[in-house]
Write the structure tokens for this entry.
Amino acid sequence: MASQGRDVSPELVLVSPDLAESARAGLPERPSEMFAWPVALRPPRAASAPRQEALDAAPVRRSGNGSRFVAALAIAGFVAVGALADNRKLPAVKTDVNMQPQPIPWGNYVFGADGQIRVAPGGRTAQFQSTMRCLGRLVLLDIPLSSRGSFTTRRSLGGLRGTVVLSGRFVKPLTITGTLRGYRTGCDSGRAAFRARLT
């Protein structure tokens, strides 16, 4: 009978029950360890991926800036809803509907063949001159100009010369629109419109 210290051929194990039993007794408890790498030569183990349970349990960090932004949006929404509920409106931009273009001091505005309106240096009065039907050549001095850029005057020329009615306004700093009428006994020029421009 062969001893356990000697090598046993596979053929003898197959034909001899005693040798087979002896060979099985000499095997280690875990036969796979006979083919394992030595500890010094074993390759390093790859780091295992984190388990899903650990990922689910990990706390989620949120940006503080994002939280503040969301809070600001929420506050703005509450304010807007409150304003709508109270029927509040944003304050309208105040505009002065009475604001009119102002005359330009020393400005000389002309119209027609010889019409002229000259603004005084202070911008508060003007001089008018023109030739018109029924009254001939006219020169009107010290016509008052309002703060709204308009003027109206009615002048009697004395004797039989008649009366002149003049009105107008500055629609732009460079433009004056107005009407002119002259009449005397037996003659009426009717109301004539004019448009004078700064030269």
In short: The CA atoms of residues 18 and 169 lie 137 Å apart. The two ends are 142 Å apart (CA to CA).
